Amino acid sequence: MTPSFADPASPSRPLYVVPQDGLEGWLDSLPVETAVWLRDSAFAAALGEVALLPGAGGTVEGAVIGHGTAKARARTRFGLSKAVAALPAGDWHFVGLPAETATEAALGWLLAQYRFDRYKPAAKVLPGLKCPDGVDEARVLAMAAGEYLTRDLINTPAQDLGPAELEAAFLSQAERFGAATQVISGPDLEHDFPMIHAVGKGSDRAPRLLSLRWGSHGPSLTLVGKGVCFDTGGLNLKPSSGMQLMKKDMGGAATVMGLAQMIMALNLPLRLRVIVPAVENSVSGRSMRPKDILRSRKGLTVEVNDTDAEGRLVLGDALAWAAEECPEVLISMATLTGAARVAVGPDLAPYYTDDAAMAHALEAGAAAGADPVWRLPFHDAYEPVIEPGIADLDNAPGYGFAGSITAALFLRRFADHPRYMHFDIYGHTPSDAPARPKGGVGQGARALLLALPEMLGL
Prior knowledge:
With about 450 residues, the protein is an alpha/beta fold. It has 2 domains: about 15-130, Leucine Aminopeptidase, subunit E, domain 1 (3-Layer(aba) Sandwich), CATH 3.40.220.10; about 140-455, Zn peptidases (Aminopeptidase). It is about 35% helix and about 20% strand. The protein is built from 16 helices and 19 strands. The strands form 4 sheets. Strands 6, 7, 8, 9, 10, 13, 14, 15 and 17 form a 9-stranded mixed sheet that branches. A 5-stranded mixed sheet has the order 2-3-1-4-5, with helices on both faces. A 3-stranded mixed sheet has the order 11-12-16, covered by helices on one side. A hairpin with a 5-residue loop joins strand 11 and strand 12. Helix 5 (about 100-110) runs parallel beside helix 6 (about 135-155).
């Protein structure tokens, strides 16, 4: 799917936006018949509540959507996007939309139009929207298109999205924007990126490391995304219930690819590098074993205490490679720990950084992009927890606490960069929400896009 707004020159019907505390005044301004219709319909202007307005000959002349209360708007992102499911097909335009909510409303409409239709055709033609006045149309379209890519990749089952297919999607994106690429596999991967090889060698679907470079001038930004296309847990096999969502374990890769698409589509003045270790963590006689000790690209040794803590292994090698070029900002994204979900739930994207200025920029971008994040600490006092004694690092310490923090500290050892930021995302919406149907979802990408000008001085 490709997100789009309706042709501004095409005919469209009005969609009136009415807050709950302004409903009576608005009803009093209407023709008597229309006001009676709405009052008899018990329309209360709750956030996202839609009522159709009848026209001549039984047609739908327009519609009204409730903007709710300030409290409701604070609790629910993209509330106006509920109109997409409630309105008949055809083009619409907002009337009475507050300027401060126009961008969120426009973006929410596009995100609500998303359908994953690879295996089942969409059942309904959805209504279109004319881009509201004052909205940066190019930026909103870029954000929606990047999110569509992320959702498509996460939603695709592992049978159709293994390391080779993720590579194909990665190369296709690079070709579209004229980016240079590099793919490392086979003996070169085994020699130069031994932890990535160790995780992926148990699968018949060969591991590989993907790299993209775009842009010739400006500050440098490197994005690293975890691309575990399916995670059985390896020899520390997950239970059946734990594997149900493991097609989404490449959500970090999908999210950095979505962010990269936004950056390239908007032609931001920076030098971008994207790195994705693409593997499948599977079970065979070749699989890495508990208590194996791996030597990383950085030279650090890692004791494998749980083969199901594989994401930090592949990211460790990828981050070490990224850090060798000393980019101005280094960011990793991964569906890394269940501990992060326990801490903040599925709706927030927890992140780590030691750079207060980067955190400030990200928080502002999150608010502007309706993309909530929450900062967690690189707590130095937990560093000894990831030091097992027999090797430099432990990939799964049996500490029992602070699982997301200790994983982030593990990654920081490999990034070794003062302006490093790590996201421990979920990448999945567990039930339908406004503009976010159940399934794959990007987290943190819009916040980062809007934070980059301050982070990088663009």
